[in-house]
Amino acid sequence: MGKYLLEIQELKTYFKTKAGRVRAVDGISFSVLPGEKVALVGESGCGKSVTALSIMRLIDQPPGEYANGSIWFDGQDLLELPESALRKIRGGQIGMIFQDPMTCLNPTMTVANQIAEGLKIHLKLSGKQAHQRAISLLEQVGIPDAAARGNAYPHQFSGGMRQRVMIAIALACNPKLLIADEPTTALDVTVQAQILELINGVCSNFGTALILITHDLGVVASMIDRVVVMYAGKVVETAPTEELFTNPRHPYTLGLLASIPRLDEARTDELKTIEGAPPNLLNPPAGCPFMPRCVFARNICRTLPPLDPLAGQEAHLKACWVDVTDPQEQLYAENRRQARLENVKALTKEAAALQTIEEQ
Amino acid sequence: MDVPQQVDLSPGENEPFWELDETPELVQKRRSQGRIIFDRFVRHRGAIVGFFFLTVLFLFCFLGPLFWRLDPDLIPNDVITSRFTAPDAAHPFGTDWIARDELARALAGGRISLLVALTSMAGAIILGVGIGSFAGFYGGIIDNLLMRFTDVYLAVPLYLLLFVLSATFTDGSPKSVVILISIFGWTYAARLVRGEYLAHREREYVLAARAIGAKNLSLMFRHILPNVAGPIIVNATLLIGSNVILESVLSYFGFGIKAPNPSWGNMVADGQGYFDQAPWLVFVPALLIFLTVLSVNIVGDGLRDALDPHMTER
Amino acid sequence: MGRYILRRLLQAIPLLILLSLFMFILIHLMPGGPEAVLFNPRLSAAGRAALRASFGLDDPPWLQYLKWLQSTLTGNFGTSFTTYQPVSSIIATCFPLTLELFGSALLLALIVAVALGMLSAVRHRTFFDYALTALSYFGISMPIFLFGLLAQDIFGVQLHLLPTSGTSTPGYTFDFFNGLLDHFLHLLLPMLVLSLTFIAQWSRYMRSSMLDVIKQDYMRTARAKGVSFFRMLTRHALRNAIIPLITIVALDFGAVAGGAAITEGVFNWPGMGLLFITSLEGRDYPVLLAMLMLGAVFVIGFNLLADILYAVMDPRIRYS
């Protein structure tokens, strides 16, 4: 309760598979203020989508399970609500748009009807009223000739248009929170900007809070208030956007920011990467999940670092034992990075030599 | 963040933690395509059971006479007393109304029924693939003509036509029944194959093969055919089942395999008249038909799941 | 779409004519024409000749065909060789019975198969699902005549519950209501047997279709909108899953003529199928031809209906 619209505490979402229990989300916590725009960033497989789906309990119960944690929304724990109460929140208080607009709409229902469906359920509008409001929503999201197009079917729209329809559906009942799961990943680059602008605009206009899931940091920089960085099912850092970009404190965030190619870099420089791969979520290591790939790693990193605010800055939290701004640490890290590169080069040479021998 | 005091931080005592071999296993062991299919098939316990049953059945019917020496056509001298004997040690399936051994008859009938089903399936598939591949690959007029031709076939009610034809053409021998069923079984396969060829015709690998000069026939049969083999194999397997049923229905009504050739279908028809005295005369062939078709269907489904890459677990 | 229908209908005409020729030839190729079977052996030679002439059997085959074609196109299907009655009236008596049997079986099967398929998909991998799958396998693996025999044996002979053949109990005269009841009781067994064979196939199809649909993203969208489970099942899942099934049902209905023969044969139900078998044995050409043509018309008609229904139900399909 209190000032936050949404407060996630120690959420754990696991999946039971034949190979074992996959810990997709392994104890994450973050909050969203009313009207705030938050971004959830991280690489593929870090648990961002699962988090989003967990908020509305859209994960299929077998094989998924909500092993722990609570999701406080407007004073209620969404994980404890009975299904009937939760259904009122889905669409009514929280709206969601998904990644692939091509498959997210029912092919046998007109676009207006799909929007009107939610209106009839949550706002109890009559058929005609719902239809009218649906048309006006279509106009607001930028569908030309909305009155006629409303009676068209999804396959008659392009990808960008369909995503607009999805936005209309999600916002139809004026929800307090909009969750957008990589809404532009499946769209053309030119359309991406339009859709993001649209989302930004409607959220600002209606005061809807936004959780935007993306792996594109450029998008984050332009419209987001606060960023939550996830890795291997855990939150590693969270801060207001500008603070994060100018003063990143977690080695992973550093790596992410460094890997973005810059316009002012020489074209011939090698792109910077973070070597290694994310850990196996079936059996994640006990300590910090980033440790195997981290150049700043220490012995103490075998214990999971808590997500704590920086000294003197309540809004910026990180989960790391190390102070990456310390020059000594940076030197140490640089040495390790060089050593690692040498290692990789040597091993590649060895592998290449072996292969040529094999081929002969 | 302040580093806790107990932390071990001096560079000298820190060994690098990250070794190449500590990274998680990124690459799964690669299995050959055949192995993948085999593994998926084996996962279906039902399919395995069905497969074993079919193998046993085939072995029995075709190798059985080597072990079970009784002649299916032999009418013993003590006909009057030994007819209608219930299943016992000497005659595991009993004897029929003229004291012929039912097990031997079942095996003989099985030979014919199974052979008919298999060969007519082969005939239908060959015809179907032949016609369908040309229709689908060339498209245009050829496709139109062939499909109209297929429509004519499909427009006629199958059983009615078969009844008429068998009255005309067949002499009750297995060979004529095989020809009959093949001539009418190809239509579904042809449609299926045509659809697949139409789809694959535009795929990149075909364009690539064309670009290096592959000729049409080679394209159709060396390049595309292996890729569309999956649904064809499944269809072929299920076709065996429907052919067994088809042949048994025809024989039952007196239109397919006729006496003196035994087939499970006409054995049921014959046994019907003696049902009160000797119910096993109906049950034995009926059960055999049913179990065969059941196994074939289960195996066919197992194949479908194994071969179709898009199928997820059902 | 109107133009598409028109085009299909126009295409059907030459098809039917071609078919009629094909079948005429086929039928006349059958060994042992009607004379061998039908004509009274005690007829004098003159009587025989007269009979032949009256049936037009003296004309060369091509003339017979043309005459038949001409009379058929004007609605006269000729006269039966066996009963000397107009073919159209014979068929008119038999057809309603077949329609009754098939129609009721199909309707029942559709409802039950859809329900079972949906239930099976929703209760995926539970006992119910496995049980239904097993039963479906049984149903499709059993030739229908076996099924019929089994049913007759169990319900008719052993349990004495239901009559096993014909449309009415012989030897009784019923008043209207009791007659209806008697007829219904006779209908029950063949209808249920036929129904079950369809249910076995269709429920598997429906289940597979539902499973496909349930996995789709738009189901998740519906859930995220707060749609109730029931509405998700009916308006979203069912509405999409039933589309391929409807075309199958239409096609199966078109196969009425063929499938009827078997069931009617087993249960002695005097509909078109039984008529066909007896006419075949009797080499009754006009009846055979008329029935084959009728069967073809049915198949072609319902094929067209299947395509139309598909376009109506799935907005993504539009014919030019």
List the helices and strands and how they pair.
The complex is a heterotrimer of chains A (360), B (314) and C (320).
Chain A: E1 6-17, E2 20-32, E3 37-41, H1 48-55, E4 64-73, E5 76-77, H2 83-89, E6 94-97, H3 111-122, H4 127-140, H5 146-149, H6 159-171, E7 177-181, H7 189-206, E8 209-214, H8 217-223, E9 226-231, E10 234-240, H9 241-246, H10 251-259, E11 308-310, E12 313-318, H11 327-359
Parallel strand pairs in A: 3-8, 3-9, 6-7, 7-8
Antiparallel strand pairs in A: 1-2, 1-4, 4-5, 9-10, 10-12, 11-12
Helix pairs in contact in A: 3-4, 3-6, 4-6, 6-7
Chain B: H1 33-42, H2 45-67, H3 79-82, H4 102-138, H5 140-155, H6 158-168, H7 174-200, H8 204-211, H9 216-252, H10 264-272, H11 280-307
Helix pairs in contact in B: 1-11, 2-4, 2-11, 4-5, 4-7, 4-9, 4-11, 5-7, 6-7, 7-9, 8-9, 9-10, 9-11, 10-11
Chain C: H1 2-29, H2 34-38, H3 45-54, H4 61-73, H5 87-122, H6 127-141, H7 144-158, H8 176-214, H9 217-224, H10 229-254, H11 256-267, H12 272-281, H13 285-313
Helix pairs in contact in C: 1-13, 5-6, 5-8, 5-10, 5-13, 6-8, 7-8, 7-11, 8-10, 9-10, 10-13, 11-12, 12-13
Task: Explain how this protein is built.
- In chain A, 36% of the residues lie in helices and 22% in strands.
- Chain A has helices at residues 48-55, 83-89, 111-122, 127-140, 146-149, 159-171, 189-206, 217-223, 241-246, 251-259, 327-359, and strands at residues 6-17, 20-32, 37-41, 64-73, 76-77, 94-97, 177-181, 209-214, 226-231, 234-240, 308-310, 313-318.
- The longest helix of chain A is centred in the C-terminal third of the chain and has 33 residues, at 327-359.
- The termini of chain A are far apart.
- The model of chain A has no long low-confidence stretch (mean pLDDT 88).
- Chain B has one domain: MetI-like (MetI-like fold).
- Residues 1-27 of chain B have low confidence and may be disordered.
- The radius of gyration of chain C is 24 Å and the shape is globular.
- Chain B binds chain C through residues 148, 151-152, 154-161, 163-165, 167-168, 241, 245, 248-249, 252-253, 268, 272, 275, 282, 286, 289-290, 293-294, 296-298, 312, 314, and chain C through 15, 18-19, 22-23, 26-27, 29-31, 137-138, 140-146, 149, 153, 208, 211, 215, 255, 257-259, 261-262, 265, 276-277, 280, 288, 291-292, 295-296, 298-300, 303.
